[in-house]
Amino acid sequence: MAGSTIQTSVTSTNASWAPISCTIFPDSPSHCDIVINVRRAVASISLVGCVFMIGIIWLYRKYMIFSQRLILYLSISAFLNCTAYLMGDLHPDGPLCDFQAFWLTYFDWTVLLWVSCVTFNLYMNVVKLRITEKYEWAYHLLCWLFPLLMSSLPFIGDHYGPAGAWCWIKEEWQWRVGIWYGPLFCIITMMMITYIYIIVKINRRANRWEGTYDPDVEQHKQLMKNDIAVLRAYPFIYLAVSIFPLINRIQNAVDHENHVFALVLLASISAPLHGALNAIVFGMDKDTTARLTPSQIKVAIQNRFSPRVVIQEYPSLPDHVPGEEE
Are 317 and 308 in contact (CB under 8 A)? Predict the structure, then answer.
């Protein structure tokens, strides 16, 4: 009887470590391996892009500027988001699968909200002519706590689990739309409308400008246009990388028994890609490009790691010390 119990225990343990079958492509299990490997490769590239952005912002102390700090927070979120994509594998429904799904949902939300904050800050600067730096704490509360709420909701009723070649919300399109895709495209639409309004507002101000030529004013206008040209790319990037995952999930909802390999593969390529694309946009900034030369980088590294010179004031010595013989 005891031997039978031990044998059952060993069999159960071996089953728990047994490889998980590719349920979405049962006739072609190699498709799952391709999807997982491609997803990890793209996530690795995005991870490098995020490290590049964080490194440049730190090296050149660009974080001293509030808008650049927002980009820094976005890059950190995207970095952590990439680690979720690197976790992607065929996991059985359980704590590990739930953790991966929660991690992915949480940092997908943080990236989206930091992109929204970049847009909102630009709107307030350009249209309302207000500085929002003093509300930086509110940005952090929104971008770190609200995702915690949204990513925790699927735990109610155990809605996290295997969702294809990785773990996310199970084959329940109502939850997928409510937790992610519905808010995602509402927020992206609002950001697009905001950027169009900002551009129209700037052009109207430029057309109404009258008076003598002021080089400082013209330079400010040009810098603002350059900022808009760079910053408006971030929501477009997020929209672009979200299209194929959305199409794939729509197909899953319509016919969850038959997954389309091409759609799953395209979703696996585009979903983790935003970190790499953000790095490209970040590198296209003229100020950043000008600093990406070997000589500039060498000087920046030396300034970063060289000891700072501390200037101290000492009281001046009197011309005559009491008690000293003359």
Answer: no
Tokens 């990037």 belong to which residue?
Answer: 237
Cα 185 from Cα 237, distance rounded (Å):
13
Cα(first)–Cα(last) distance of the chain, in Å?
A: 109
Reported as a single tens digit per residue, the pLDDT across 208-222 is 655 554 555 555 555
d(CA 193, CA 312): 54
Instruction: Kindly report the pTM of this predicted structure.
Output: 0.80
> Which own/partner pairs from 59-63 qualify as long-range (CB within 8 Å, at least 24 positions apart)?
59/297, 59/300, 59/301, 59/304, 60/291, 60/300
Residue-wise pLDDT for 241-262, tens only, equals: 888 888 887 887 787 778 788 8
159: Cα separation from own chain's centroid: 24
- Range 122-130, long-range pairs (CB < 8 A, 24+ positions): 122/67, 122/198, 122/227, 122/228, 122/231, 122/232, 123/194, 123/197, 123/198, 125/67, 126/198, 126/201, 126/202, 126/224, 126/228, 127/197, 127/198, 127/201
